[in-house]
Amino acid sequence: MIPARQLQSSVLPGARASAPSGVAASSRALTALLTLLYMALFHLIYSVQISPAFAYMGYTLNPSISLGQWAVTALFAVLPLLFLRLDGARPSNFIILLLYLLVYVPAQYMFTALDLTLHHVLLNRMVLLMGLAAMTAVSARPMAVGFDRPVSAGVFRAVLALLFASLFLGVASQFGFGLNLVGLFDVYDIRSEYKDEVGEAGRAFAYAVPYLGIVSAFMVGYGLIKRFFPFTLLGAFSLLYIFGTTGQKSTLFSLLLLIGVAVLYWLNPRKMGQNFVLLLTLFVGAVYVYDLWSRDILASSLFVRRLILTPGLLTVYYLDFFSVNPPAQLGHSFLSSIFPYPYDLRPAFLIGREYFNAPSMSANANLFADAYSNFREWGVLAFSVLLGGLLAFVDGYSRRLTTPVVVVTGLALPAFALTNSALFTSLLTHGLLFSVLLTYLYAASERDRNQSL
């Protein structure tokens, strides 16, 4: 049997570096510079391509941004790097960094870039910083999680295969078995048809499809890392099937995300944060070069506007509106019996009407924006603490694993959903709780193997 101390250190060379102080100051400084370069690149794309083409949709650009405003923006963009854990020793580190790069940094940029008179900008900047800090602090100490009944790796694979088959056959029985390969820019008709079919099929299928996506993505990661390639092929096929059936680009993007996760942990787990920012910066730069070459803005619209800038834009709009209007207090949801809802539209449609002049538009935002819309800064604090506690639980059952990256692949899809969805929606509809259960079972199967060594 491997001693507990030795096993814990085998999680990652230099695993003690998970504390902020364990990452060299030079590495943090380089990560900060890369973050500013990342922000400068998407500012270039926003000012040259996105805003001129999409200003009518709210993507406006302030023509007179002062040097002082840029300095404040840069300061708030890199401040979290003082406390974020930048290594890959824990799954929570990757998830928080994902939220930092795809929600927090774009929002700090949008506070400055938008050609709009906003309310309480400095306070709202600090609210987002507080939320990220609270989430990081609560997840800093992994929970003590035991495995009363560990399962063997063979049993886990059998359960995973059975779960995949059940979900896939259930979804295919409703939507058909054909693999419909469509272009990234030709998905809107398919998405509309899918929504109609889900409405007819019932709510169960609204859960089955994202849950199938989680299982499929996990099988891709598990198969690659454990060299069990039948799972990799089945998972990849299933993700392509879901994309062709639903038109949800995020499902196809998940393949890129899984590849990115594998590359990050392959390069150097101890420099996961630095390499994450580097890869994302290179990706944004490549998108811009491609659009220059193609003389179009389709790639920038899809990969930069939709994935990076829109979460930041909506965060600013939510914080701006609900800082001067009554909070929702979940009166449109499960607290409706306690708090009366003060509006005629749900928050997503309310923002669509107020900022996009489109009351039929559902402007779904991320966990920070949703939290603020319900309870303002106290909501951001409470929801961040709640997610931080869940991540501490995940770290608790992952800390003995020799390959914690497998857990990251299981959490990747619902974690990505947090950049565009409310926390409670992500927990249930997008399957965050389901993915936690799935990766817990995986950790139990690995625990059984470790105990038998």
Automatic annotation (TrEMBL):
Transmembrane segments: 36-59, 65-83, 95-114, 126-147, 159-184, 204-221, 228-244, 250-268, 275-293, 378-394, 401-418, 424-443
Keywords on record: Membrane, Transmembrane, Transmembrane helix
Domain of life the protein comes from: Bacteria
Protein name in the entry: Oligosaccharide repeat unit polymerase
Organism expressing this protein natively: Deinococcus radiophilus
Taxon lineage: Bacteria, Thermotogati, Deinococcota, Deinococci, Deinococcales
